[in-house]
Amino acid sequence: MGFMDKKKAVKLATASAVAASAFVAANPHASQAATDVATVVSQAKAQFKEAYYTYSHTVTETGKLPNISDVYAAYNKAKQAYANAVAVVNKAGGAKKDAYLADLQATYETYVFKANPKSGEARVATYIDAYNYAVKLDGLRQDLAKAVEAKDLKKAEELYHKISYELKTRTVILDRVYGQSTRDLLRSQFKAEAQKLRDSLVYDITVSMKAREAQDAVKAGNLDKAKAALDQVNQYVSKVTDAFKTELQKAAQDANAAYEAALPFKVESVAVVNAKQIEIKFNKAVDRSTASNKNNYKIQKSSDSSASTLATLDGSADISWSDDGKTVTITTTSGIINKFGVVNDAPFKFIVENIKDKYGKTVDSYSTNLVVKDTVAPTLKEVKATAKSTTTKVTLVFSEPVQASGAIAYVGGQAASVQDGSNPNEIILTTAQALEAGKTYDLTLLNFKDYANNFLQPNPTTKSFTVSSDAVAPTVQDVKVVRDNLIEVTFDKAMDASTFAGYTRVLDLNGNPQGGTITATIKSGTAGKTVRLALGSAVPFNDSGVFSGTLVLGNGIKDVNGNAKSATTHSITLTKDTARPTVAGASYVAAGGQYAGNTYTNGAIVLKFNEDVAKIGSDFRLITAGGEDVTSRLNAGGAAVNNDDNTEVIIPLSSSLSAGTYTLRVGNDVVQDLSTQANRNAAAVTTVTVGASSDSSKPVVNEGSVSAVAATSQTSGTTISLTMTDNVGLDLATVQDVNNYLLNGKPLPSGSYVTIAHGSGSSSSAATNITVTLNIPAKSITKDGQYALNINNIKDKAGNIADPKVANVRLNDDVSPELKTATISSNGLLVLGFSESVNSVGATTPSDFQFVINGVEVATTYNGNIVQFDDGTGTDAGKYVVTFKAKVDKGADNNESTTADNRLYLDVNGNNAFDSGTDILVQTGTTKAVGDVTLDVNLLSALKVKVVNNAAVKDQSTLQNPIQVGTTITVK
Q: Boundaries of each SbsA Ig-like domain copy (predicted)?
């Protein structure tokens, strides 16, 4: 055969082989004489190769895998051809029999099949095995994809392991296929896709497995193994896919909780942080009710015969805890040395006892020796002042708590008052001057010292700072689901809860609104930054008790300074709450003490639950340590939920209790939680310790009592009244400090003052019930509307600080509008701008203004001849646009065509003729047409505008305040 195209040769050979194979298959026992053995062998070998080419040439020519049925058909033909050819050779016999048989076998085993093939052998059979395996692997991949889509974690984990096994142990089948391009195509089309999906779930499956492993280890008491598993859970849970995020986060949370609950509760360390603070670290989160009980901390000096409680030594000390609840910090009111009576560098014993973890385990009594040895001077770390326009507050941040008493500060060369901040390491300076945003001021600090009397160095310290501008929109920092109908949103700044109405929605995955009308309130103790969003109705949970949707926060939501946020959306998952509320503990309010704004003559018991509740029953029993039933001393019918803290039920006492430990039995269905399911409590038992009382109750600012008498004229002024109470007595200095009140986040207007009226039983020496009136001077409120009144830093005589409160009041604008700007527009008109919106132009509007033109003062009676007032539009909306009406005459020669002497003038007296000495000449020599023209103000050599009357121009407020007279603006 001569030279020909390779592909054509293959096709011809294939055709011959097929024909010969058909002949042999039809005549396997034909006579030797009729059969050419060599041809039969050659044709059979061609069929073997054709079976191989069926898959290999398809891949190389199309880049795709062949139809497997075509490969099977060719494979079966090759097997049959081999059997028939062997039969022919054996039948024919002869000298070449063995050679023919060997050739047939070698070719067959290379291209078609061999029992234990080596690389490059049994190509068709190996391909078929590989393809069938790949299809099986892809089936597992598809099943896994469906499990992910259905969020079936159990099924997904099962398939994940099956695919992992296949990829690890069996994909070598693909590697045996002859032909690089075929191997690569099988790998990319089947193995790579399966591996990609499997690998995407590696963190999900690891977290799922390790969370179970941790739970099992906890049950088996192997906490070391549980800890090792949890380390991996906590490392990878943030990386899981969205499909299983909710389920795995809960699994991680439950596993961590189980491990923490199983740990023995212990104190890890106690340390003196500085001369004012002691820090206690626990190995797990504390129960805040017992951790905040000052009787559970004791101090004993070497000279003391017994230990004294913190409640006795410093009943007003502040107790706080870290976000994870594992670190408790005690901040004394005036320093450890002063309150505990210890000596610097002298050891004293510190005891921790009776504190429970959040699972109810009580810590073993722990004691250690502490020493106050503070010789390091405090350092000034930061100076902060923020304002939208002006402020009088400057915050100093130190490396440790410093004493406000005796400290002196100057801001911008003027003395400033020095007060403790809300943070122990902060001091607040209040200036008499208004500090402007963007400006830099000098700061001088003298005699600032820590509670070990180490002075700030150098003394005095000087520093400059710049007031930062607060014109930035608030941003969302965190969205947290509290329960199945309550969401908390934390912002980076204090928010105005009243602006959330109409701009807050919950949508389901189809975009339909759910949850009814949403109510927004500020969460106490968050400086106004955390807003609680309560849903008005239940969302539609799925069969698993889960609702997935979107929280929409619109662009009408504002901070307390009026800065609006951008619209944002946040994915949320609400889980139906089916857990009962549980009793977390109980505490005692001493007889005559005040709690949550009420005075309890005989005392009270505060019953703490693990979540917000509503009271629905009164089944309480009180038993003494000796077993005596003293339930009659409980005013169970008067029990009520604490309005300031809905996790508490306050049970008044009808008669006082003697010191000791009591058992309080709480019956079934006393409370129900506030979830959509209204779950009721189960019966429980807790203890109450009644000891010596100390004043640790905060004064109460009754924000519900806030009312305002808005200004009725520009001379009446404005007053705002509210009531405050305390069980012992308010610190009236803090009540009368105007700096403790803010309107829309700003200090009260200059000249404001505070007056006090005492209610029943209240006096200057024991101010227990007072009405406070904020007196705001006339002409101080610049805008009609709702104002947020912030009340902060109100203290009682023991130093307890009332919770910050916010109330809304409606006030009237009693400030006159002022002429602020007078500018020339691009088309030569005069534009007058004001401090606020004013009324529309009327017939008498021009009479409130006087113009001085080119040095000539024009009487207001002539304004109608030379000016026309119109309301501004577009970018000039809210302003007045003044058009100067001029005239052009024919000049001295009374010849219109000789323009060199034509005059452009303002006809002041309105007689249509130029009168020298009366009218104002603007230009001699003009080409403008003779007659009335609009004057380009730029042609004037000088122009002033004055406000001389206030009969016509008024603002648009309720009081319609007239314009401020006396303002003069030089235009040019």
A: 374-466
